[in-house]
Amino acid sequence: MAKCRGCGPGYKSPLDAMKGPREEIVYVPCIYRNTNIEKPDYLATVDVDPKSANYCKVIHRLPMPNLKDELHHSGWNSCSSCFGDPSKTRNRLILPSLISSRIYVVDVGTDPRAPRLHKTVEPSELFWKCGLANPHTSHCLGSGQIMISTMGDPYGNGNGGFVLLDGETFEVIGNWELPGEAAPFGYDFWYQPRHNVMISTEWGAPKVLANGFNPNDVKAGHYGQSIHVWDWTTHKRLQSLDLGVAGAIPLEVRFLHNPDAAEGFVGCALNGTVFRFYKTQKGDWATEKVIGVPSKKVEGWILPEMPSLITDILISLDDRFLYFSNWLHGDIRQYDITDTRNPRLVGQVFLGGSILNDGLVKVTEDQELDGQPSPCIIKGKRVPGSPQMLQLSLDGKRLYSTTSLYSAWDKQFYPDLIKEGSVMTQIDVDTVKGGLRVNPDFLVDFGREPDGPALAHEVRYPGGDCTSDIWI
């Protein structure tokens, strides 16, 4: 972390963060829901220090006190948005549960290598105080409060509202959005106070996606295709920007890290697109599609065409590179976004997926590849499933990937993940010219966990990272 007198957690700027120390441990939520293993989800602490005797090993496991929570994404009690407040410390990890609607607060300050449970916020608190359920993304605010987006109401319908927690007691304060202002669906969000704006995205109604994906639910309007613009000061929803069929299921949203920037990107899963959103000269917000990954015509799959399914995106701290994962096709891509309107593909690696050359799916028409990719084998282990969640080192030189998307969809699309568990891999990044290369010496195999194969999801660094820290 930054060393200076009178400063709070994190770093003064994104470029300062790039000079931070190399990551030595990471936190990874591991899920047992839908695996037929009756054990609670847990938070794994993984050693990623190449100088350590425990390199690539899980060194601690913190089981949750309940079953079938579906841990998913995590956030902090305070981050770089509180850098100017010396009273704040990044010592609690906020762990929302996507299905049970519990929120766990984990003490990572007392012993970072052995986190312990600090508090549990029960679902009834969200239900009764906010009318919300299915919490997803957690961000700390410069005010010291914690804000968590939600996907549903207590009945499983879509509801894009936001829960506020007290940053000291972790009590539920209430809704962030004004009465009647919630979006039809919710998922991710990112705020940019210098432009008095927040952008939120949409997945779908929890009651239809809880147990798997049915394309008919998209046609029935149970999945979203809009992003929403909010006034950061008044909490009013100002615009809902319909991305159309091309932008169906907009998931992860990322502003550029520069707090003066008035633009960013959103990855849209269903049809493999990335949209740029930006502030216009009039002062409102607009979008344009800047990347499209062509679907592949296939035989031996559930549909005659297979979309790439972009499921995670992130931006390097210097705002130079955009990365995303194609969970069905099986690749990770790196784009140079120096010209944000014209991203340029500069790196690509395949780590699995549904179109491998020894699988059951035959690609009959491909606009990008000359042949189907080979399986990825690291340290003698064939990577099961496909790259999904991404996290980039502060200096931008190491990209981590895990292979679980969401347990019900894992079970549907990659049943081998349920049997074998997921893995965590590392990709070396060329930060000069661009380029990606799989590190052949790095593999964390969650198939060998003591209680059986687990599904590993998001990667989080104790000192903050490019998907959790926001500068104001």
Automatic annotation (TrEMBL):
Transmembrane segments: none annotated. Pathway: Organosulfur degradation. One of its GO terms (cellular component) is nucleus. It catalyses: methanethiol + O2 + H2O = hydrogen sulfide + formaldehyde + H2O2 + H(+). One of its GO terms (molecular function) is methanethiol oxidase activity. It comes from the Eukaryota. It is a peripheral membrane protein. The keyword Protein transport applies. Keywords: Acetylation, Cytoplasm, Membrane, Nucleus, Oxidoreductase, Protein transport, Selenium, Transport. Belongs to the selenium-binding protein family. This is Methanethiol oxidase. The lineage of its organism: Eukaryota, Metazoa, Chordata, Craniata, Vertebrata. The gene is SELENBP1.
